[in-house]
């Protein structure tokens, strides 16, 4: 009788442990899915916030900052595109994603050394500009005004 009771007790403890582990795994997977969705929303929000902040920095023409300037009319989308053959280091780093001052300087130096870019794809010849960075910025790049 004691053996039978011991077997029943061990069986019960084992099955409850397995059920508890399964429940924990299900909770973890549900949490992980929710966390990944939240991270994606944050990434999209931060991306849109960066664009808005950069646009404000580039288009700020208030009289307090620039007393002689007049308000500008900007065509939607134009404020975010950049001519890689004429842009300054500041313009490149402000308007392009994942392009800081160092990479922007490399772009300008490459342009000075090898001449104007013939195609926007030639930007990938610049050291530090890979396929991923290029693809993130493809829609913002132009080579003519």
TrEMBL record:
Q: Which residues form the signal peptide?
A: 1-20
- What is one term from the GO cellular component aspect held by the record? type II protein secretion system complex
Q: Which UniProt keywords apply?
A: Signal
SUPFAM superfamilies per UniProt: RuvA domain 2-like
Gene Ontology biological process terms in this record: protein secretion by the type II secretion system
NCBIfam families, alphabetized: competence protein ComEA helix-hairpin-helix repeat region
Its recorded name reads ComEA family DNA-binding protein
- Tell me which species this is from: Acinetobacter qingfengensis
């Amino acid at each position: 009788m004691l053996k039978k009771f011991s077997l029943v007790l061990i069986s019960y403890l084992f099955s409850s442990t397995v059920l508890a582990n399964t429940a924990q795994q299900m909770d973890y997977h549900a949490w992980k899915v929710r966390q990944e969705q939240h991270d994606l929303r944050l990434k999209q929000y931060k991306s849109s916030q960066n664009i808005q902040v950069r646009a404000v920095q580039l288009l700020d023409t208030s009289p307090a900052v620039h007393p002689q300037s007049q308000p500008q009319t900007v065509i939607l989308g134009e404020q975010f595109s950049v001519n890689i053959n004429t842009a300054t280091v500041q313009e490149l780093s402000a308007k392009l994603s994942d392009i800081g001052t160092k990479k922007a300087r490399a772009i300008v130096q490459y342009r000075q050394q090898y001449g104007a870019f013939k195609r926007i794809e030639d930007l990938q010849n610049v050291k530090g500009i890979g396929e991923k960075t290029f693809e993130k910025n493809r829609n913002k790049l132009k080579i003519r005004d």
